[in-house]
Amino acid sequence: MEQEQELGLMMAEDIMGLSLNPKKPPLQPSMSGRGGFITMPFIIVNEIFERIASMGMLPNMILYLMREYHMEAANGASVLFICSFLTNALAIFGAFLSDAYLGRFRVIALGSFSSLIGIILLWSTTEIPGMKPPPCEQFKDDCNPATPSQLAVLFSSFGLISIGAGCIRPCSMAFGADQLDKETPDSDRILDRFFNWYYASTAISIVITLTIMVYIQDHMGWNFGFGILAVIMFFSAFIFLSGSPLYIKVKPSSSLFSGFVQVPLVAFKNRHLNAPADPDEEYYHQSDDKKLAPTNKLRWLNRACMVRDPGTELSSDGTAPNPRSICSVEQVESLKTLLRLIPIWSTGIMILVTVGQSSFSTLQATTMDRYLTQNFEIPAASFTAATPVVLMIWIPLYDIVLVPFLARYTGQPRGISSKFRMGIGLVLSCVAMAVGAITEGIRRRMAVEQGLDEQLDATLNMSALWLMPPNILFGFAEFFNAIGQIEFYYSQFSKSMSSIAVALFTVGIAVASLVGSLVVNIVKNATSRGGKESWLSSNINKGHLDYYFWMITILGLINFMYFLGCCWFYGDEKKGEEDDIEYTPLPSS
What we know:
The protein is mainly α. It has helices spanning 2-16, 40-55, 61-68, 73-102, 104-127, 148-178, 187-220, 222-242, 256-269, 279-282, 310-313, 329-355, 358-366, 386-410, 418-449, 468-492, 499-527, 545-570. Mean pLDDT is 80; it is low at 11-31 and 575-589.
């Protein structure tokens, strides 16, 4: 469910103020005549079209891989997990590339071109003979598998699309903020309008993806559906490049990620130094405030901010001309915070694996009655739309109505603590998975009773609306856990490192996708030994998808117990800073 995770991530940033600075005036046209709100349509339309184009292939892709490339369900799900991993892992690389080397404009342009080529390549697999295996009736004919060259073309298209998304998504919002100047009286209102439109564009693109694009692919064919996506991506790139003369193009400087890498390297370089007697004099501070002293935890890292020779390592104004030779106390302490957060961060991986089972939900829906009326049938992949709809409705409702009410009784500015919210999300994900397992058990039993265990194309006398409760619960689980995670990470870092909070969550999605692929392959191989029907059989009427869901539920419960242990080990959150928080504008991609 990459779409739902994306929406939760964007709205989380909005709720917590990760990108807004209410005390500092943000942003209008620059003195050069470039930038300003006139550039927003080019940037936002590029973002909407890119998301529709790249995400528009995902909801139905499991069906395309099974029907056109004759993949087994488990293999297809594993491929989609790996695609999600690449997209999110490359987002970190894209942010680093834009901040440190190429700048945001060039990276977005490069990503737009890569996505366009990738989608055209995917569309070509539906049009050019020989690009995919010959058609056959699944489960009845001896279908020829795809050749290595056919898979190479398919996976190349996925890779190019992932590269494009990894370049565009982490840079687009920051590039939009670059266009707005910080010196005008009404800058607060203008910046607020930009972020509102940006978040709205995310919601719009996801809804269009899970409804209109899925419907087109179902009723007008893969060639027309993927062709539409290619046209949309072409206009995404064209519109973005058309605004080039109007943009402010900020030059790249440095990246927070490179700073984190430098700390252990410099500490190792200084490994023979002894701790200074006067910390105020012999540790390097990036700011004028020298009250922050290195902590005793992970003390070996403190050597990275020790000043060996002030005459050569520091300039006359006290700054470090060569950041590769010395790090600041702030950098060292931020890295320590990051390392300390890793155990709690790891507890979020399992819930993302749980929420990411949408491919199997699509397969379930294909076997069930999806008609709302005699003439309208809901596309199988559209049932997962319940999750982002819950996020879109519940996030503003919680923030506007429930937070003030809860804050009166709990004393927490956000209603309840971030760790408590994360725990609620973990429990709800287990409940959602258990409900999904019960629903699948009933669906499979009815298929056997109705004699349809060998007829996957037949429709059960069971409404697909029974798939809605698990997806709705997943929406609530993601709301509590995902936003709680980012809120917790943000509260633990210094203001200058706030963008790391979002980066941590993005890395979590990438790792969860890799873990999800690993779990699917292990379950498939373990349960098909001795010629048995795998739990994750392509014919889900003969497999045991319900057993798989129960296994994920049990793993989720074990993960919840692990989470409680991590919370106890971590101790109390930072307190007393909430009222004085000065929200930072986007410091980097």
